[in-house]
Amino acid sequence: MTPSAAAMSTFRSIQAPAAVVMVRPHRFTPNPETATDNAFQNPAAVGEARAIAAAAHREVTRAAEQLQDAGVRVHLFEDRGEQDTPDSVFPNNWFSTHPGGRVAIYAMHSPSRRRERRQDVIEMLKAEYRVQDVIDYSGLEHDQLFLEGTGAMVLDHTAGVAYTARSNRADPVLLERFSTHFNFEPIVFDTADMAGRPIYHTNVLMCVATEFALLGTRSLTDPSRAREVVARLQEWGHEVIDLSPEQIGEFAGNAIELSGRAGRVLALSQRACDSLTARQKARIKRSARLLPLAVPTIELAGGSVRCMLAGIHLSPRRAAAGLGKAT
Fold this sequence. Notes:
The protein is of the alpha/beta class. It is built from 11 helices and 16 strands. Residues 1-11 and 321-327 have low confidence and may be disordered.
């Protein structure tokens, strides 16, 4: 049974998109070029390249099906490996979409990741959704300025805040430029993993949903700054669910809230879901259904479900349902 429009308005929010872009890889492998600053990454075993690529292909296929079953529209693009793009399964880093018909294209730190940008994805957005403006920051790579999209930033669309962990993938100059163009206030902080290394992307330790936020407060190195971030989230009605450093290591922070057919869902990996306590799950379920996706092979590359999903915060040109496909 399809819920009424009134019921859906209760479920959906500016923070929880009802559609996503995914990329299904045919030659997936952990990227040695990004391993230097991504401590969550595990190298591929020698001689297992084909098996790893095949497993990643299956995981993305199944994840797209599960999202579709939940009522999320999925635009599934193929990466057939014509170029060396080992991280193509993580499209949220090279573009983002915003209410009002705006799209941003980002400057990427690693040369191999710059090849992930695809004009066919942008053209699909223009054809299927109301796009008024595309701002392309990729040319700033020549100036060594990088900002890796909604990996480097966790955006609170309701409050207009861009939470950002300092790293070489989030240049402060480019962050200020983005914030000016898209009307966000940047809130920047330092982080460290359990080994004391800076965390490479903000979306590994933080997720902002409609009524709650997941945050690894102990991963912020300055306790006073952590309290400020918590206070800001609470100011805008988000109940903060604190994640331990161990849960961050299990990708518990790498989640995204989406609008499905029967309400909001929190998409995260099975590994991440298994790391949550019963109390944390109960709090999430008051606002969104947990939707665990098994992506253990993809997680070898140091990213998880949030990284795999580029949310579409644009108005559709026409009513659409089902699994959107593009090749």
